[in-house]
Please model this.
Amino acid sequence: MKFTTPATTNPIDQLKVIGKPLDRVDGPLKTTGTAPYAYEHHVAVPDAAYGYIVPAGIAKGSIASIDLDAARRAPGVLAIVTSESAGKLGLGSFNTAHLLGGPEIQHYHQAVAVVVAETFEQARAAAQFVRVTYARQDGAYDLAAAKPATGVDKDTPDKKVGAFAGAFASAPVRVDHEYSTPDHAHAMMEPHASTARWDGDKVTIWTSNQMIAWGRADVAKTLGLPKEKVRLISPYIGGGFGGKRTSWKWAWTWIPARRASAACWPCARQAASSTPSRRAAR
Amino acid sequence: MLAVCAAGRILNPKSARSQVIGSMTMGVGAALMEELAVDHRAGIFVNHDLAGYEVPVHADIPHQEVIFLDETDPVSSPMKAKGVGELGLCGVGAAIANAIYNATGARVRDYPITLDKLLSKLPGQS
Model:
């Protein structure tokens, strides 16, 4: 919305609800721990299988071989999905890396396989049996070293007003220091978890997401479905801080596991910290 | 900690206060604790869990107070309000850095301000 002139009197000035110290509707649920996390929709999806991700052990390169035999034989395993078996997957508008890595690996901890089993513990145990070997390539991982060569961001170019250099040089008081902040993680309470249920060719996803319309569009694009076939439900967000706006990719990485008609993914903390977006150092 | 905010019209004083005390807590994390360590050889964030990536918890946070100035801001939005959560965060890191300077004489400009960054700046150090 374009907003170029100061607001005048409008209905909000009546302050009938706005301005009052009202309790949050979901406050008691959240403070008593009874608001469900996105992987806890057991009433809506009572028969959900569990997904567990096998994360890439290199940051750049490719998969040389992947051995799923031992994992397939592990107790409770229903399916193992890789980029090879997932079928064609698109790339969401807000994603730069593919949902499943392979053969190319685009970043450390990119999902290379999703193990789906009857219980979370079985899925996690079986994931340890997936054997992946890689052809590693060298990459550039030092942001400060790479920054001088990256040039100006075309979306937000530097803005200059006036003749700074001369005025600063002749200023009676000069303050010129460099400040730095490191890379940050959002470290939200609830990781990027989700539960999904397929009904024929429609998928319903309970997730923890700050931008539902964007998420729905990207799920549809990734799975090659019309948007009408995708429903996202996010009644609560167990902390987001911007980290669940555009990088929800991991919240539904396991969705290609259609052989299990319904599955949920609790999202290990390590995955929440190393794969979705972060704030880069300045 | 005390926050005094000129944040335009406050839509809900109770939830706005919660936003600001949360922001102050996050500000303590940014000022004193939070840092993802990058392994430049392997391309991985080394401290990728809450054991290694520390954030403030209740025991780290002192008494907090929030004061909202009684104002509206017709230039910021039709509701004459501002986003309170982010406003509550932005002064915290500077305030803590200034408090450390006030207490020790050591000026640190690289966050987070951990104890090792103070050592060389303390009196008697070269």
